[in-house]
Amino acid sequence: MDLKPLDDRVSVSGQVAPGEIGEIARRGFTTLICNRPDGEAPGQPRFEEIAEQAREAGMEAVFLPVTGATLGPAAARQFADAIGRSDGPVLAYCRTGTRSTALWTLSRLMEGDPKDRLRESTARAGYDMSGLLDNA
């Protein structure tokens, strides 16, 4: 499990497994956001399996699946709302963490964060959001 912080509140990762949820909660995360549609790949755990483990660990679980076609301002607003409702640190995941990072980047742009700061934050986490930021 490779958790990558984007800021002091939000981290991203690739697909999490149901058995990893307890460790995620022990690390202090209170909200888990799934940005991956169910059934995207064979053997992928369904969101409900993850959500059940998250609830048992005392975490909130949010299902906000996105694809290339649905990754945009509306999804970014929903993502920002889920973070805003959280009472602590948030872990967002998808297949590799890229979609979750893109949603965070778009949501922060909508809040007026400078592009250079977002570019640095995402690069530190190992994600190149230049294309997204250059076209925003």
TrEMBL record:
Highest taxon listed in the record's lineage: Bacteria
A GO molecular-function descriptor: hydrolase activity
Beta-lactamase hydrolase-like protein phosphatase-like domain mapped to chain residues: 2-108
CDD domains, A to Z: PTP-bact
NCBIfam families: TIGR01244 family sulfur transferase
Protein name per the record: TIGR01244 family phosphatase
Organism (species): Oricola cellulosilytica
